[in-house]
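Researcher: Here's the sequence for the chain we discussed earlier.
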Amino acid sequence: MMKKRILLLLGTVIVLSAQVAMGQVAKVTLSHYGQLTMYNAEELQSAINASVAGDTIFLNEGSFSGGITIPKAISLIGAGENTIINGNVNITASGTFTARMLDALNIQGSISGGSSTGLVIRKCKFYGFSCGSLVDAVIDRCYCYGSNSYINLNFNIKNMQVVNSVVRQLRYYASNVGDVTFVNCNILSFNTSDNVKATFLNCIVRNYYTQRDSYFSYCKLYQDNGTNTMQNCQTGSFSWSDTYNYSTSMLGTDGTVIGIKGGTTPFTLVPNNPKVINYNLNVDAANKKLTVNVSVTAN
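Model: Thanks. This is the structure I predict for it:
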């Protein structure tokens, strides 16, 4: 199984490398049980429509049509910050997911997370996130950015984790939001007047005004309004001009610095997929032979 997955991934890398070599950028590659189908950048929704649960869609660097809907348990994997989806991503798939759904994408819009179990969003940039009923969801090393960016939470969420992520604004539009844990996150502000009852571990929180009944452990906060449980936290005035780069020497529960630069998975938007570091494409027209030599490295 591992050998098959490696060969499939290398095959995809070879196809994408050939596209670059021929000047064809911003392509969509649908992988279905080892069979690869190519689409143009504006045909991303068509590739999604043609997929079945368990398929993977690869996007190389470039700009792709947004306003897409994902009704199936597939994986949409980009090449990092330069893989740009111009618009919102609406996830309507339900059931239990066994693989990450969004990875290494720069979404110039918001994500609607729908209702499901096991949703994973990793190493993505986006303007906003909202959802219905989520169980065991993970937002991992993501950057929710922009002057009006946000993550919306509600009382239908169970056992959700936000890990090593940059969040400009948290919003809560329902009372008694619970079962959400933030670990090693940089959070600029809260926007809520409800009883949230979330857990914050090893986080840096710049501004919060009406956050109530939550648990903070080894966090750095601007202030304590007196209705939260605080353990080994630092409070007091501090400022930052860049949520992305702010850091502190304060250590967390695991002995690493608190905030996005600590923990077992420090923040990065560099994709996990192998990146092409060198390639050579030789065409032998006389013998109808194509030779592709590709060097890749895993990040």
